[in-house]
Amino acid sequence: MPIRIYQYTDRVEIMNPGGLYGKARPENFPNVNDYRNPVVAEAMKLLRYVNMFNHGVHNVQALLKSNVSAR
Fold first, then answer.
1. Would you say the pTM of this structure is higher than 0.70?
2. Predicted local distance difference test score (pLDDT) of residue 34
3. Whole-angstrom distance between the N-terminal and C-terminal Cα of the chain?
C-alpha cells in the first residue's frame, strides 16, 4: 500500500502501512535505521540520490518544531 499524507487545519498525518523494518524499533526510531536492500541503498547514496542515511526524519521533525514555534 502507498504512504498516505492527510492535511487537516491543525495537523498533518503521515500513514505508512509498512511499519519499521529490521533493527529499527519504536523505542530507537529515528536514530536507528535498516534497509531491505542495503546494496541499492548504498548505490543511491553514492550516486547522490539521497544526501545522508537517516537524515530525512530529523529534518522533518526540526521543520515541524520550527513551524509550531513560529505560530
1. no
2. 87
3. 34
The confidence score (pLDDT) of residue 61 equals: 86
Secondary structure (DSSP) of 49-62: SSSSTTHHHHHHHH
Low-confidence ranges of the chain (pLDDT < 50): none
> Does residue 21 contact residue 12 with C-beta atoms inside 8 Å?
no
Give the separation between CA 44 and CA 38, rounded to whole angstroms: 10
Q: Rounded to whole angstroms, how far apart are CA atoms 30 and 37? A: 18
Question: Residue 41 carries which side chain, given as an amino acid letter?
Answer: A
What number of residues does the chain have? 71
Residue with cell 523494518: 21
pLDDT computed for residue 71 by the predictor: 64
Q: Could you give the dihedral angle defined by the CA atoms of residues 57, 53, 51 and 58, in that order, rounded to the nearest 10 degrees?
A: 20
